Amino acid sequence: MIDTDLIATENRRRAEDLRRDYDALGQQLDRRGVDIEAVKAKVAGYGVAIPSWGVGTGGTRFARFPGPGEPRDVFDKLDDCGVIHQLTGATPSVSLHIPWDKADPARLRDKAAAVGLRFDAMNSNTFQDHAGQALSYRHGSLSHTDAAVRRQAVEHNLECIEIGRAIGSRALTVWVGDGSNFPGQTDLSAQFERYLDAMGAIYDGLPSDWRLFTEHKMYEPAFYSTVVQDWGSNLMIAQHLGERAYCLVDLGHHAPNANIEMIVARLIHAGKLGGFHFNDSKYGDDDLDTGAIDPYRLFLVFNELVIAEGRADFAPAHMLDQSHNVTDPIESLMLSAIEVQRAYAQALLVDRQALAGYQQDNDALMATATLKQAFRTDVDPILAMARTERGAAVDPVAAYRASGYRAAVAETRPAVSGAGGGIV
Amino acid sequence: MIDTDLIATENRRRAEDLRRDYDALGQQLDRRGVDIEAVKAKVAGYGVAIPSWGVGTGGTRFARFPGPGEPRDVFDKLDDCGVIHQLTGATPSVSLHIPWDKADPARLRDKAAAVGLRFDAMNSNTFQDHAGQALSYRHGSLSHTDAAVRRQAVEHNLECIEIGRAIGSRALTVWVGDGSNFPGQTDLSAQFERYLDAMGAIYDGLPSDWRLFTEHKMYEPAFYSTVVQDWGSNLMIAQHLGERAYCLVDLGHHAPNANIEMIVARLIHAGKLGGFHFNDSKYGDDDLDTGAIDPYRLFLVFNELVIAEGRADFAPAHMLDQSHNVTDPIESLMLSAIEVQRAYAQALLVDRQALAGYQQDNDALMATATLKQAFRTDVDPILAMARTERGAAVDPVAAYRASGYRAAVAETRPAVSGAGGGIV
Amino acid sequence: MIDTDLIATENRRRAEDLRRDYDALGQQLDRRGVDIEAVKAKVAGYGVAIPSWGVGTGGTRFARFPGPGEPRDVFDKLDDCGVIHQLTGATPSVSLHIPWDKADPARLRDKAAAVGLRFDAMNSNTFQDHAGQALSYRHGSLSHTDAAVRRQAVEHNLECIEIGRAIGSRALTVWVGDGSNFPGQTDLSAQFERYLDAMGAIYDGLPSDWRLFTEHKMYEPAFYSTVVQDWGSNLMIAQHLGERAYCLVDLGHHAPNANIEMIVARLIHAGKLGGFHFNDSKYGDDDLDTGAIDPYRLFLVFNELVIAEGRADFAPAHMLDQSHNVTDPIESLMLSAIEVQRAYAQALLVDRQALAGYQQDNDALMATATLKQAFRTDVDPILAMARTERGAAVDPVAAYRASGYRAAVAETRPAVSGAGGGIV
Amino acid sequence: MIDTDLIATENRRRAEDLRRDYDALGQQLDRRGVDIEAVKAKVAGYGVAIPSWGVGTGGTRFARFPGPGEPRDVFDKLDDCGVIHQLTGATPSVSLHIPWDKADPARLRDKAAAVGLRFDAMNSNTFQDHAGQALSYRHGSLSHTDAAVRRQAVEHNLECIEIGRAIGSRALTVWVGDGSNFPGQTDLSAQFERYLDAMGAIYDGLPSDWRLFTEHKMYEPAFYSTVVQDWGSNLMIAQHLGERAYCLVDLGHHAPNANIEMIVARLIHAGKLGGFHFNDSKYGDDDLDTGAIDPYRLFLVFNELVIAEGRADFAPAHMLDQSHNVTDPIESLMLSAIEVQRAYAQALLVDRQALAGYQQDNDALMATATLKQAFRTDVDPILAMARTERGAAVDPVAAYRASGYRAAVAETRPAVSGAGGGIV
User: Fewer CB within 10 Å: N-end or C-end of chain C?
Assistant: First the structure.
């Protein structure tokens, strides 16, 4: 963990400027009828989960270029996640991936407690073959033509639930790579039915206080068809399984030009929005840092979430899911968590009453200007003030770099050599 | 109509070559275990509807360049449609658009009977303002914020049903342009709810032996959001309305790269595939001639339809829906109807038993090769033989050109001058 | 024009708040080493041209819904453009489209002077057929297979130059719809060569102090191929024609997911960036208001322009080019001009020295954070202060609405009824 | 290699049917004025290169699922390539990737001669870090900010040329992954200039009888910008370097909806089309089997190539470049080579004279119908006859499976366990 004195010292250097900016913003918002303290309180209460695998350097099928101090196991990952939460105050939980993060539950609970974290949704993995696995997922997992493979995949998911129960998780996220690379390779309908059957068996094993999240994706790793290719199929799945089944939206898993905030609105309308994997993309499932490419789109998603706040049973799970190929993952995750908070804060600033009036009157210009005014408000002082008040860093990246954490862990974690991705 | 002697003469000139090609193909198919006569019989029994508006020259928002002999009204359109069916034998019905095609029902029935056609689904129009209309659809129709506008739009649809009953139609197709051009212009969820309410009122007025088709479209004329933007929303609508509500798939209304045949398979699985608007596209809703850009994609759609043939209550409506900007619409519609037949015939050739085996064994290469073998079979002799046997033309375009039909109607139908589209 | 007293009164009501926000921002920027006055001066010196056709309500191929007070001719359009510049101070010039705006040059000059405007680039129109035109552009214009049609199109462009010379324009923009709707319809190479030949004849007629802009577009109105489909073809054209030929970039004319700022950088590198048609898009050439969909993308384009500022012969022309289908065009154009200024102001705030260091060190995180810091700065007070200091409105839309301009012109300009677009 | 008796036996079983189909097709083509023997001769003279890396199972960043008998080194790969050529007669050359295929040149030459192959273009690799490499390519190679990294990358390319000279290659293909994942990460123009400089140094080292191919790609592995992102940048590079520099087109490297055959036509017009990497794609750089997704698009590319046949200095290099994730790579490469031949044969069937007439007359319908007639002709008998006449297999996959080659090599080549791709 980072020395709290260092954080405090860093914060003190920025305190006066922050106070001045915060007050100026507070006055401006007050004129707009917004109480800056109320916004700050909501932001301070907001958290987004970190995926355990996010703290390692990612890669592509062409190559992976590891950095210094790559985490060796789930305990190293929890250390890194602890640092992120310590400096941002925005990431109170961690989502594990099985079997990558398999370990003794008691040790996991102890470690998480030690670094101030709790466990979010469990993630199963049937898109890779693992050491000691009896049957291969080369040709699919939950939708495989061979019932034995499907059974193996179901049992793996049930095991994930078991592990999750032991460490306090309350949800299972299922993403599969099942699909096909050629027209005709699979019977599209039969494959979907096999998937539904297998998911039904998992749902049957779901504890009554858990939720099941299924995740759609247009393509990759399958390049002609994917069994859960879009939110329409995902909705059919959630409807088929039952009331504790929900749809998960990964921002990078859609067709070019898709209106994602509209998909979010539809799933809310259907009562089936389970949660998010936040990231950003320009081309495909690029898994870039949240808000890096199109921050207005992220704001528009949060605009829908703020509209839905307070609906019965509306409690979507929020997680980052990114691939950090050229940055220090800890730095990227810190800034991404802040980008999510920023979008939330901006969405809270929207003058809802004025907007409703413009919408009713079909005053498109003033309606969109109302959103824009909220979006272009620089809410950085609110986010920074929320951080400093809870002992996190005003400038998390500066504090992190000043701490020397990366160099320190690189001393004990052995260097990893670069490696080709899937193509070699 | 075209002189039947002319058709017979044209056909006689091609009879010997056609017989030779048909026999050679028959032998080849026989080796593959396929009875060419059975395929020909299915093709001969297949028909696709013509949209009345398709026989006029189309245009873009930039311009429209009419040709000679543009139809003046619905009766001219029925004449043109009659010619298409006479020469192809593949287009036994016409779909009307109200108010464009409003006319005395008795005269419509008589005219249709005279040209050998019947009436397919009715189409309502609430995406334009019409002469004498009380309220404008500028800001929406069935989902407008003003209840009076919604009521006007509902009543227009009910009137379409009334007209349809009088002329023997059995279905109503609803496509609206409702949506928004700016983030925030509409409350995405509230707009959807208003749409559902209004559609509910239309559904309530649907005769018990009618079907209601709703059509999704990603964008255009609305360029930020569209109330029925994709098949997911469309499915929610059909589920909401009831068992006689179905989803209509226009091949050009999807996101870039979308796997359309998979959407078809999912809607079949949900029991909600209502029918098709056939056309082709490279970029957006280009409304190009069916099969003009990607004939294999069309084949893959028909592959799903052939798989589903014989399912209970499976009777999707087939219609062409194209914009003919640079060709004679009659010629384009004839060739497009034949392209649809071609895809159907090719899909019938797939060796289903072999394919199922390859799929079960995950032999992706042979599975896709099985589809490819069917697709690359030149089924032209089957289609031409089916035509000649029913008195239609072996080469419809040649017969049409030989007939001088276009020049003849241009004598009585006045020339239309070119005009700008929406931008001027 | 708007009563200047009204503007002054409106501005006085907002003066105190504006001063407070401007001073707070000035202090914040001062800490970042930025002189707010220098930024304001650059913004105040910046202008973007208005297209004359932009002040009329636009439409789609499906419909056009005119509003009250549609301009009847170019003189009405100049009135509307004068109001836009009066209230924003950001749009000092107007771009005419021939033959839509054909009129006596002396009267045009006088009118422009009267409303405080000058004339920007001339636009030719060979994508529509005009009354009295000898040959049709149905199958192309500058690239038509018929030399007589090409000659007619060339002569029209030469006439545009003549008109432009008479009113003080210095550039010709050529956009054509030429292309094809079917594979094989044209010989792609021969069509390009015919286009190059015809453009060569236009270039030969270009005055020595003029520039020639060619505009690429992926598709629409042609839906299979377009003769100037992308910046690569556009570059080949500019290279072929000569040193006064440049490429024009319309933000909405690219493939899905294209990195437009990179295209801008490449054209700058080639010395061939001629200028912009600003707008925004989510799907295709949506012609939405600039910055309405992805304001960060607009900022990234201006980031490239600020980098290139001061290069020899670097003087790109800036114009708005939008279709206002659901808003008052005057309002949309005012806000869009301000959005362009906003992106420019934000790009001026980028800490270039810090950024260069991060780039050199491959510190991707801090490099992108440097851009983000500039982007999220709310520069509204700078833009508003620049406006008020020149007598324009602090809040142009509020002043415009208070003025009653639209209602006033609707008294004298007759109502236009709604009309179908290209499809009917 | 495969036992020639086995091939002969297999062929004999199919000889009679093949002869019958060939004759029937010959008669049909004769009626269309086409000499089937001439077409067969051109097809028989056509070859496409195999990439050495294509014979190993590919993968994605998520996983790789190796099959039995994965090649251990370049000599195993040459064995596999030899089998492909033996059975198809269509793949006379192999393209090596350095350092993956580094080996003693004399042994390489001997091995190639033994299996009946020659060497095509050399491929350098600066998108991965290799064992023993001094500097990392994590942040770029030929365009890196550090001159030492650029120099290392240049020297690697020069070494590739040296190796190529020793084994009889005559071309170097350069593809780099350089780009950025974040706006601002790189100075887009400066990065391009560094790339041009480095490529200039490689070009300086190019033997006078060699060609240099640069390959553009929209994205992946860089997800915000790529230094050679499209054909426009690629053209600028080839123009900058000199007359032996050409652009390489990989069919999967373009934006969604791009008209690839038009890009081909433009590069031919510029005299800069260097060659192809053939594959197919539905979403991104999917690297699926050639013709698997959109066979008509492949035909349209070959249509442009046939038009350009015979132009001075027109000799594009043809290579397959695919990732075989779920099929036996040998089988996929055999069928893909045949798909390329098929598209070529179909393009040869186009009635050029009729087409030119329709194009001149703007008869779009008949022009596109002329292409379609050629495309839908089942040329399989021509391809099979060409194969059998040279001792290759009428049905290569059947012969391959009958031979037991895969099982045989799996005996000597050790099993490879499944592995995660870049993400773990």
Answer: N
